[in-house]
Amino acid sequence: MSRSYDLAQHFPPMETSFAGRFTKKGSGSSFNSQVSVDDDSSNNRHSYEQVAEPVWKSHLYQVQLKAPKPQRVVCTNHFSNKPFQYGKEYHGPISREEADRLVMQKEGCYLIRESQRQPGSFVLVFNFSNQPRNYKLYFDTEENQHYVGEKRFETTQDLVADGLITLYVDLNAKDYIEHMTLNAGPAARPPDQQDFRTTHEQTLQRNTPTRPVYNTFKASDCEKAHNFKTHSYYGPHWCHYCRNFMWGLKAQGVRCQDCSYDCHKQCSTIIPNNCSPDRKLVKRVFGVDLTTLIKAHDQKRPQIVESCVHELEKRGLELEGIYRVPGFADDITYLRNQIDKEGTVPDITEQAFDDINVIAGLVKSYFRTLPIPVITFDLYDQFIAAVKMEDKSDVLKALSTALKSLPPAHYELLKYFCRHLQRVTKYKDRNLMSGENLGIVFGPTLMRAPDHLAMEAVGYIPYQKKIIQSLIEEQDVLFER
């Protein structure tokens, strides 16, 4: 029996582990569910102990425990051409009828046979619910893993065990699974959960967004979607949303790559956009989603942008061609690698880098590597349509509307950087960088065209330039203070 299967069998259910009393992580205090009620109208004093709803629901765990266990049907025959990846469960090129007969000895019995119709291909046969099941079996020679579907397993024993669990749970808990997200209710949070875990009340409110207040912007107020990917849990695991057991041995659910939130795949579709990234999981700066970065570091704006802007305004405003003249590529690459490695901006003062163009190149590199540009893909067409209007007042009104549709983190950064660029233009007689010239430089950087418009992107360059130029020159009108 494999280790992962043993764990799923022998871990104790956690339904009542934390009910009624638990210790909050990071503190020494305990929270009790005991409440005292005084009745002043009489001399009697009554104490009531609140019955807390179990934190974890164990119904699906109990169902999994009852699933049939895999029983290998051993073959004693010797095969000279036996595939190396199979053991004594391999029975050679026997007929389907013979294989079906062999596995009917007991529920959970399984074997592997070579297909008589397609020599060189193999079939997994096992008994579930007193009926033989036949599945074409594959083997990944590079990963040394067996599979019949998407899930991959190191052993056929694990594959059969997972299959039996999946079929048994589907047969005996189908209605429960279909309604488990509807039954999710408020519950106490276990001690190993951080405050960013989703609450059911937040989920119910997910369709009532509030307009962000930009002049009181805080990173913690930003909405961010979870970055879910299929995940395998070794040992029993429970969904953080519906609090039900995540059944199976492999790929039981999904985990957010930014905050480690775990849930069923079906629950992930209704989780609100309340991801609060864990700084330990966000290991880079370049190429990281903007909202993810500022929430992970609890900053209004990325530190790299603020540090570069501070240094540029300190010693680069009068430099001819600032932002247009490229910096030394090796120095920019060095700084990028250091920032990604350490998570903070190193010394970028004149003593460390006398060429201010390196610092300008660094901030441009940051904008270029954003997965979603500052002016987001979904608003690209709206911004383009705004500057196509003939009347200037209509252009400004449409741009203002489009800006208010930006995610708060993107709006805040764009406002901050455009005000910096406006200060750059005040020295245009010396640095030769007018709003138009800066629009040419930052148009394709701050509002990269979506992939579906890649072929037409060249034709949109004049509009991109005009948009950024307008944001620089009219930022006092367009951006809320």
From TrEMBL:
Q: Keywords of this protein's UniProt record, alphabetized? A: GTPase activation, Membrane, Metal-binding, SH2 domain, Zinc, Zinc-finger
Q: Which GO terms describe its cellular component?
A: membrane
Query: What are the residue boundaries of the SH2 domain, all occurrences included?
Result: 89-160
Q: Where in the cell is it found?
A: Membrane
Q: Does the keyword Membrane apply?
A: yes
**What is the membrane topology listed in the Swiss-Prot or TrEMBL record?**
Peripheral membrane protein
The record's annotation in InterPro entries points to: C1-like_sf, DAG/PE-bd, PKC_DAG/PE, Rho-type_GAP, Rho_GTPase_activation_prot, RhoGAP_dom, SH2, SH2_dom_sf
One term of GO molecular function:
GTPase activator activity
Specify the Phorbol-ester/DAG-type domain's residue ranges: 225-275
Q: Which GO terms describe its biological process?
A: signal transduction
Domain of life, per lineage: Eukaryota
| Ranges for region Disordered | 25-46
Rho-GAP domain ranges (all copies): 288-479
Q: Which SMART domains match?
A: C1, RhoGAP, SH2
Protein's recorded name:
Beta-chimaerin
